[in-house]
Amino acid sequence: MMNLRHKTIVFLGTDGSGKSTVIDAITPVLRRKYATNINYEHLRPNYIPSLGVAMGKRTKDDETQITKVENPHSEKPSGFFGSLFRLSYYLIDYTYGYYKKIYKSDGIWIFDRYFYDFIIDPRRGKINLPQWLIKLFGCIIPSPDLIICLGTDAGTIYQRKPELSLHEIKRQVDMLKLFSQKHKKAVWIDTGCSIEKTVKDTMQIINSCFNK
Predict the structure, then answer these.
(1) Has residue 107 been placed in a domain?
(2) Is residue 124 a contact partner of residue 161, using CB atoms and an 8 Å limit?
């Protein structure tokens, strides 16, 4: 068994791509294999409260509902300056928060979604900014050790979770595939097969990354 000082794995994919299922399946395997703590975060380090809580629009108890979104595009994006403020606020969490909470800790950190979601699906985060500007922000954030992009045929995902239109799901899947080809730490895994094969493929990629 290998004890790890600090590793980060990011899972990206549309709702219905299998992120939660894969994360739940690999967590005990990782804990046994690497004899270390497995930590989980959604979207960001969450060292600082969400913008809604910070501005008094939500309570901390409401935070538990953030990951359970039935219609991720139900709210209109903020305007340019509102979006810029929102992204700048969360940049603090991705930098200072990452250093305080993630970098200075032991174990494996698993992120269900990450900053890259603002590029692939900005409307979900209520961001309305040019792609080049969001990507510029992305140059500042810490890069994870491994980015696992999950997805399959858009029709299959739509049958699992028809929360977005088929066209929008296809757009995101295509963007995610392109992202996995361009980012040196990203890998694409097709989740159209059995969960057993998906988990096996995922663990092979993780082991290969951690044992370099």
Answers:
(1) yes
(2) no
